[in-house]
Amino acid sequence: MRPGSTDPGRRYPAAVGIRLRPGLPADYPGFERWFPMLESGDPTPSAQRWRDELCGSSTVAEFDGRAVGYCMAQVFGRDGYIRHLVVEPEARRTGAGRALLLHVASEMTAAGCSSWRLNVRDDNAPALALYASLGLQVHHACTSLRFPPALVDRLATGVRSQDVVAPDGDQISGLEERFELPTGQLASSRAHPSGLVLALLGEEVGSWGVATFEHARQGSFPFRAESEETATALLHALRRHATGPEMGVVSEDVDAFTLRLIEAGARVPFRFVHMRGPL
Ligand SMILES: CC(C)(COP(=O)(O)OP(=O)(O)OC[C@H]1O[C@@H](n2cnc3c(N)ncnc32)[C@H](O)[C@@H]1OP(=O)(O)O)[C@@H](O)C(=O)NCCC(=O)NCCS
Q: How far does the centroid of ligand 1 lie from the alpha carbon of residue 69, in Å?
């Protein structure tokens, strides 16, 4: 494709001249453009959050001295987690996305990771093709659900609210193992200034579940449960922490729970898939 073409990609020569470097606080104007292209529905994190939490985990792609995209990733034990990947429309199909991922994968390997994972919308054909070409495979489907907190009051549960606990460190490790979550993900959610982790422990109530809640997003991810009953009980516990007009969960395990929420009036901003692969 010729430079200057109206095609949204290939305005830069393929893969030539892409330079990768660590993210910097000064990349915030770029991040402000890129983040909405993820179409996550989340508000763009502040400049302070970019500076304090996100830019240090990010790699930026430059073309001709201009930042054209980024990849943000985290390492959890032996698992690498790709959190964000964006290339500006004008720079797409030049190999920048693949270059970013390969670079981040080599950093993950150097950090001791043997596998990597990510979430991607199930209708995002370019990203799905890119990830599949790097050996990632769909592991399971996920549904993002958002609803007014009052909707939860209409869902009956037989589990007592006092059975929902704030798990301690050992319990958190056990929950990560049980739900195949990356090592340290729950601990990191709990350590976040606006984070919370709640759980139902199977040895007490017969079925396991764990949910995080991030006040800034009024949302829960990861939200994992072994049964509809457990999921509903966790939702009631989260509802007590909701302060906005809408709250959200990402449902990953229990189809019956997802359907129940949709029937009760929850909207589905998007569906996505969780992909995993070896490094
Ligand atoms: C997904 C995205 C990062 C890809 O970036 P990119 O720089 O265009 O990707 P690359 O040029 O490295 O392409 C690598 C491969 O991805 C696949 N691919 C990329 N764009 C594609 C498209 N429009 N259609 C089909 N396959 C596509 C191809 O397999 C391609 O290899 P090829 O060019 O040899 O055929 C970019 O499209 C983007 O930023 N999208 C918006 C944000 C987003 O959806 N991020 C992913 C969130 S999980």
A: 12
Per-residue pLDDT tens digits for 218-234: 999 999 999 999 999 99
pTM given for the model: 0.88
Residues 92 and 217 occupy one common structural domain: no
Probe residue for ligand 1, chosen from 11, 62, 98, 101 as the CB with the greatest number of ligand atoms within 8 Å: 98
Three-state SS at 72: strand
Number of separate domains in the chain: 2
Please name the residues in contact with 49: beta carbons below 8 A apart, sequence gap of 6 or more.
none
pLDDT digits (tens, 9 = 90+) for 107-155: 999 999 999 999 999 999 999 999 999 999 999 999 999 999 999 999 9
Domain region containing 162: 142-278
